[in-house]
Amino acid sequence: MSSPVYDEPLSARDVESGYASGASSEPSLPDVYFSKPHLKFLNSQLQKLEPQDILQWCVTSLPGLYQTTAFGLTGLVALDMLSKLSGPIKPDVDLIFLDTLHHFDETLALVERVRRRYSGVNIHAYKPADCEAAQDFSAKHGERLWEKNEELYDYVAKVEPAQRAYSELQVKAVLTGRRRSQGGKRGDLDIIEVDEAGLIKVNPLANWSFKQVQDYVKANNVPFNELLNNGYKSVGDWHSTQPIVEGEDERAGRWKGRAKTECGIHNPKSKYAQFLRQQELKRQEDELSQAFQGVKLEA
């Protein structure tokens, strides 16, 4: 698939067909589009603003806007900021939570505290297809899938539920909690991006350090994951998250000892399309191998 940002305008709607029409009224228009110069200009301007100002721009400029969150510290700060925005347009940004069924108990307890604290915000929880609990996941995909087939785990636990959420909720743009100071591939984040599926991703706190996030949490009494008091700085699934030691990058506790730095939803969609093709080829090869074995036995 070609790059999602062109010299000619690009629609923010899913670009599977190459062009996305807007509302049903005439004339038909795309929902949101950016040319390369426009996107570059927006980033140059948004780069100068405080997160609250970036969020205000998002609320007034981007239709179909949601916040994707695993209830990490940065996402919670963005949520609190949104709740306090003042202006003629009231923020109406729902949350999308990907419940992998392998979160820490502390994370699930935090979700309920957030519901109580920000009662006006809707939380849309999406789980792996046809699974309600970890036992269902193991029965469907086998025990400890994250060890046996990490790519498949990422797809069924995170990527597919995210794609389902975006489709069902008609998501055009998402707020993320990614920051440059988190290290890894996030070191060169822009404020606003368009991925290869045409989804607009905004990183309103991209410029902030972990200390700035911490200071905001303390000053505003923002609820946070209790694991952060036990050496964790970034919390994901229990099986792939560890505390970090002094001097390590903020996300060093995620997939510790491996080159991996992202969970899947922020990786290129084509990577997973390629992965699914490989899975299908393997399935076909296995079926063919079994058929040959059957022929040999009959002979």
TrEMBL record:
EC number: 1.8.4.8
Molecular function as annotated in GO: phosphoadenylyl-sulfate reductase (thioredoxin) activity
Superkingdom of origin organism: Eukaryota
Pathway where this protein functions: Sulfur metabolism; hydrogen sulfide biosynthesis; sulfite from sulfate: step 3/3
Pfam family, one: PAPS_reduct
Enzyme class: oxidoreductase
Domain Phosphoadenosine phosphosulphate reductase: from-to ranges: 66-243
Listed GO biological process terms: cysteine biosynthetic process; methionine biosynthetic process; sulfate assimilation, phosphoadenylyl sulfate reduction by phosphoadenylyl-sulfate reductase (thioredoxin)
Gene3D superfamilies in UniProt: HUPs
Catalysed conversion reaction: [thioredoxin]-disulfide + sulfite + adenosine 3',5'-bisphosphate + 2 H(+) = [thioredoxin]-dithiol + 3'-phosphoadenylyl sulfate
Keywords: Amino-acid biosynthesis, Cysteine biosynthesis, Methionine biosynthesis, NADP, Oxidoreductase
Region called Disordered, residue ranges: 1-27
GO cellular component terms attached to this protein's record: cytoplasm
NCBIfam families, sorted: cysH, PAPS_reductase, PRK02090.1
Record family assignment: Belongs to the PAPS reductase family. CysH subfamily.
Protein name, UniProt field: phosphoadenylyl-sulfate reductase (thioredoxin)
